[in-house]
């Protein structure tokens, strides 16, 4: 203890290790060794000693809580939750244990149980605003919006608390009071312009496809928090939603450059690059590099092929596109866009009859794929099947708007995903 007080943790650890050899199975020694590693944030090294301490005194609520905290820092939340549950059983009146238990239950997707645990903590420790706000957060997750709002309203200084304003924004969002939600999130970001609050405001606009406002907030957030990956992803999504594909491409390419195995970045880059004309596509080469490095990503390979098979494509580009397309179809034979591009490639080779098989597979998997119907109509016409050609031409007209609808559908899916990104 004297060595620890001097800040000489190595000396303290050496003495404790010697004591442990001389007196194995001693709770005080093992617990002290574990907590010494915890003080240095070496949680993996602390774990064996904290486990030993729990074995030696299983009814010690402090030992259980210390073990749970170490598990939590190692992202082993299920084991942390079990340890804090035991700690709460051994000492039901410990506020810190109750609060940690509530927070872990909330992370585990058990908001009702989390609210109950936090309510008990509030009973034991009254007039604690931070604890009350955590309780309100659990109530919101449990869907008890009235009680959550009442809990926040009972706190002093709600109008000047960024955390309270952010929670009120969540309540209004769930009640579909979108203007009120935006006002609360804006107020939270004004009071405390940290990354989380700026993100919440920008996401509120993105969630409701108010893309200009979302772009403004995400752009400001990306400048202020250059290390925030989710801010850049949000900005790219807002650009895409607003039809500003050329602005989205360099943002997505930069994200993919820094995370070369990220499927979502690659898919979004593919969607964006194939939605623009030839202008502004310089950064799209990142997608081709990704597709070549990830042969089992059929969708990325298909997007990359569509970039390569342009009217001015040279023999090397066509060869690369053909290679990627074969990979895509081998991985996912029912991917309609891949079958369509293979049909297109065969038509460019003059194999009109052979293209029919691929194009039929494309429209079977995705009947609204208008370009496949158009190419199938051409193939039927070239091979003398005039009636079938007319039918496919009619289907092409019917599904002419389907491509934009597909982009909108995928945008909704990506937006939903991004809204749930935590950091």
For the terminal residues, how far apart are their CA atoms?
Answer: 39 Å
Shape: elongated
Average pLDDT taken over every residue: 92
Which bin fits the share of residues in helices?
A: over 70%
Class per helix and strand makeup: mainly alpha
Order of helices and strands: HHHHHHHHHHHHHHHHHHHHHHHHH
Q: What is the CA-based Rg, rounded?
A: 29 Å
CATH architecture of the domain at 337-407: Alpha Horseshoe
Assign the CATH class of the domain at 337-407: Mainly Alpha
Précis, in short:
The chain is mainly α and 423 residues long. It contains 25 helices and no strands.
What's the layout of helices and strands?
Layout: H1 2-5, H2 9-22, H3 27-39, H4 43-56, H5 61-73, H6 77-90, H7 95-107, H8 111-124, H9 129-142, H10 145-153, H11 162-174, H12 178-191, H13 195-207, H14 211-224, H15 229-241, H16 245-258, H17 263-273, H18 285-293, H19 298-308, H20 315-331, H21 336-348, H22 352-365, H23 370-382, H24 386-398, H25 402-419
Helix pairs in contact: 2-3, 3-4, 4-5, 5-6, 6-7, 7-8, 7-9, 8-9, 9-10, 9-11, 10-11, 11-12, 12-13, 13-14, 13-15, 13-25, 14-15, 15-16, 15-25, 16-17, 17-18, 17-19, 18-19, 19-20, 20-21, 21-22, 21-23, 22-23, 23-24
């Amino acid at each position: 203890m004297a060595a620890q007080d001097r800040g000489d943790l190595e000396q303290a650890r050496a003495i404790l290790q010697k004591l442990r050899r001389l007196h194995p199975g001693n709770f005080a020694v093992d617990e002290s060794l574990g907590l010494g590693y915890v003080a240095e944030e070496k949680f993996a090294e602390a774990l064996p000693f904290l486990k030993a301490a729990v074995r030696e005194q299983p009814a010690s609520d402090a030992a259980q809580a210390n073990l749970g905290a170490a598990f939590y820092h190692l992202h082993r939340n299920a084991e942390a939750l079990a340890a804090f549950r035991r700690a709460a059983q051994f000492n039901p009146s410990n506020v810190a244990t109750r609060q940690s238990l509530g927070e872990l239950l909330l992370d585990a997707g058990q908001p009702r149980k989390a609210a109950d645990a936090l309510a008990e903590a509030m009973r034991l420790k009254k007039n604690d605003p931070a604890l009350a706000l955590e309780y309100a957060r659990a109530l919101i997750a449990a869907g008890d919006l009235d009680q959550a709002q009442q809990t926040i309203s009972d706190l002093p200084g709600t109008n000047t608390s960024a955390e309270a304003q952010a929670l009120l924004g969540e309540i209004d969002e769930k009640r579909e009071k979108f203007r009120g939600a935006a006002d609360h999130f804006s107020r939270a970001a004004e009071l405390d312009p940290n990354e989380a609050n700026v993100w919440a405001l920008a996401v509120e606009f993105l969630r409701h496809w108010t893309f200009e406002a979302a772009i403004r907030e995400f752009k400001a957030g990306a400048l202020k928090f250059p290390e925030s990956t989710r801010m850049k992803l949000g900005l790219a999504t807002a650009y895409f939603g607003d039809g500003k594909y050329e602005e989205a491409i360099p943002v997505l390419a930069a994200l993919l450059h820094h995370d070369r195995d990220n499927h979502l970045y690659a898919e979004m880059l593919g969607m964006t690059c194939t939605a623009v004309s030839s202008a502004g596509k310089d950064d799209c080469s990142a997608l081709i590099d990704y597709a070549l490095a990830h042969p089992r990503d059929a969708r990325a390979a298909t997007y990359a092929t569509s970039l390569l098979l342009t009217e001015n494509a040279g023999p090397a580009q066509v060869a690369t596109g053909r290679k990627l397309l074969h990979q895509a179809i081998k991985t996912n034979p029912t991917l309609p866009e891949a079958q369509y591009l293979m049909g297109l490639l065969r038509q460019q080779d003059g194999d009109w009859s052979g293209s029919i098989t691929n194009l039929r597979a494309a429209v079977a998997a995705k009947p609204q794929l208008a370009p496949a119907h158009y190419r199938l109509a051409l193939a039927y016409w070239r091979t003398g099947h005039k009636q079938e050609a007319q039918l496919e031409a009619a289907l092409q007209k019917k599904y002419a708007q389907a491509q934009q609808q597909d982009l909108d559908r995928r945008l909704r899916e990506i937006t939903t995903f991004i809204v749930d990104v935590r950091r």
